[in-house]
Structure formats: structure tokens, C-alpha cells
């Protein structure tokens, strides 16, 4: 009867079950410690079927990184209405990011910890996903800056640097809040919004922080 | 004559030369691609001497992580006068951080990329160094918050979250500015200071960003 079931279930559905089991196992036990036996058992399939569909532990892990990376970037994009004011867009984006990473802690562990810790090909997969998030945030900041100024005086490089800072801060906070009991996604989003917005907001209004005069000599 | 030189030079000095060569090689070529032959040649010593002093490629890499991590945390601590006002401390700390990572790009690559990408023991070494930086920043923010308020209303958890966000932002910006031609350490520090201070500064003064009323229902 098990064999009959296996035959009837479409391959795409089976693969998603295997990926679910793999993300959970890689995320909780780590890439090295995770075994294909364990993943097959959790997915309720035979180990040869996992190899038939996903080829190898490396390919299975790569498929996990791609799926989880895509789900995260899609969640952030879906959370943001680009017709909203800039601070609302940022708040919505941060809430979508922290909600998703809190609801999918194993996926986040695969992306943020496991994929970076086990060799360059996996790290490159994550870097591609991260570049997409940075591009999205860069565009958000650039649009906000254009709205705020008649003549834009936030240089492209400054905007790119701010986007890198914001994404780095979000990654760091997501890892911390998932590892710290009692921190909700909304609290993490509010902490980063507090940290970031008044700073970005002042920049948009042309009020940068100024270095102390006595050090700079001006 | 080479052999005489080798004998005369103190072990501690030789080891530092080997570590200099190893950091350069690991940082520029990556942990996997770096060979012990290459490191020995660059250090001007024989390969057996490298193994005699540092034991294995793994141990040599661990020694690199520890030395570079210690140098970075010491540079940040040394850059900050804890008697200064909070914004000056943060500015000095950020300038020390970005100057150090810009002057030691190979060391930063070892810490930020290589050590995280090649297995849990190395990642754990970097995590310990990072925890020290986070603790330093946490204390800086906590002291500033105590100064700014008669009764401290920034909860410990909020301060811890802000420190995580700031360190994550700094790591991300350092990697970006080292990889982007023409971005100076001072520009990177100013970008993050602009991003962070007005936000933190407003928090210290008890002016948090408020979520839009219509979403929060309050």
C-alpha cells in the first residue's frame, strides 16, 4: 500500500515533502550532522527515492537554500505596497522579514548559518538571494530619497551603503531574536525600525549627523 | 645561511611571519584553495617548520582567526575614550572599526567570510569574537541610555537588540566597502553613523518611531 501511495503522489508534491524534511533536519541538526536516512524517514519515503529525486546531499541542500531564499524574498516583496509612504514601506518590509524568519526558523538557520558555514558553492547561493534583498531595499531607499528632495542629494553610493547596513542589521537581529526566547517578530521589527527610521528619515530631510568639529578640523 | 637565520630568529617572531603569510593567503585565495606550500613560501620558511610550529592547516587557520579577531576588538576598544559623550564614542568606535577592516582586508575576509564558510569550529571562533564586540557596543548604548534618562526606559532587551543591529550593519558595510572601489573607511563610518545615530539619538531622548495608527489599531 505504501508503494501504491508513492506512485500516486505527483513528483512535485513528494519533492516538497522531502525539502520540508530536509530544511527541518539541516536547520536543527546542522548540515554535517544531518543524515539522508533521517531526512528520508522524516519525509516518509525511502532513501533511494530521495537520491532519485534530489541526487545527492549537496544537491538536496542547494535545493533547500534556493527554496527558502525565494520564499523569504517573496514574503518581503509581498509584504510591501510600493504605493505607500516610505516609512510605511520600510515598516511593512521589516515586519514581513521578521515574521517570515520567526515562522520559519529552520529555513532561516539554513540560509543564515548552515549555507554560509559549509563551503563556497552554498555561500554563493545565499549571496545571490541576499543581493536580491539588498537591491529591493536600495530601491526603497532611493525612491524615498527622490520623494523627499527636489534635487536628490543622497548619492547612489550612499544609498547602496545604507541598504547594506539595513540588510546586515536585519540579518543579525533575526538570528538574535530567533535565538532569544520571548522576542517576537514584531518587537524585532520595531527595534530595527526605531534604530533605522529616525536616522534614514533625518537623512531624507537633509539633516545628516555631523562629526564633532574639533576632530574634523572644520 | 638560511638555516642559521632560521635558528637565530625567536619562535614567536617566526610564528607571526607565518601567520602574516597565512592570513594573506587564506584571505585572498580562500581557505580551501590556500596551500601550505604557498604559505610557507610566502613566509620564507620550509613547510615542515610551519607544521612543527602550527601543527596543521586547521590549527593554522584557527590561529589566524584568533589573532585577527583579537586585533579587531582591540582596535575598536583602543579607538574609544569611554569618558567621551555617547555620539563621539560611537563615531570613534565606527571609525576604528572601518579603518581597521580597510587596512586589514585579508584579516577581515578571514573573519567575515572564510571562517564562517568552512565549518562549525571556525564559525564558533568568530562567534566568540563577535560576542565580545556586541558586548562592547551593548555597554556603550546602555551607558548612553542611562546618561540620557533620569529613569532608564530602554529595556535591556531593547539595548541588546540595538547592539545586534549595529554590529550586523557594521559587518555588512565593511564587507561592502572593502569590495567596492573608492569607498573609504571614513565614508563607511559616516554612512553608518548617519544611519544609526539619529535613530539611537532619538531613542535616547525618548522619541521612538511610532507605527502608523491605522495598522496597529491604537
Question: What keyword list fits this structure?
Answer:
homodimer; Tetracycline Repressor, domain 2; mainly alpha; 218 residues; disordered C terminus
Question: What this model shows, in words?
Answer:
The structure is a homodimer of 218-residue chains. With 218 residues, chain A is an all-alpha fold. Chain A has a single domain, classed as Tetracycline Repressor, domain 2 (Orthogonal Bundle). Chain A is built from 11 helices and no strands. In chain A, helix 2 (11-29) crosses helix 7 (105-117), helix 7 (105-117) packs across helix 8 (120-148) and helix 8 (120-148) packs across helix 9 (156-179). The first copy, chain A, is elongated, with a radius of gyration of 21 Å. Residues 214-218 of chain A have low confidence and may be disordered. At the A-B interface, helix 6, helix 7, helix 9 and helix 10 of A face helix 6, helix 7, helix 9 and helix 10 of B.
Strand content of chain A: under 5%
* Major beta-sheet overview of chain A: none
Give the C-alpha Rg of chain A. 21 Å
Q: How many strands in all of chain A?
A: 0
InterPro entries (chains A, B): DesT_TetR_C (IPR054129), Homeodomain-like_sf (IPR009057), HTH-type_TetR-like_transc_reg (IPR050109), HTH_TetR (IPR001647), Tet_transcr_reg_TetR-rel_C_sf (IPR036271)
Pfam family, one (chains A, B): TetR_C_46
Domain HTH tetR-type (chains A, B): 12-72
Keywords (chains A, B): DNA-binding, Transcription, Transcription regulation
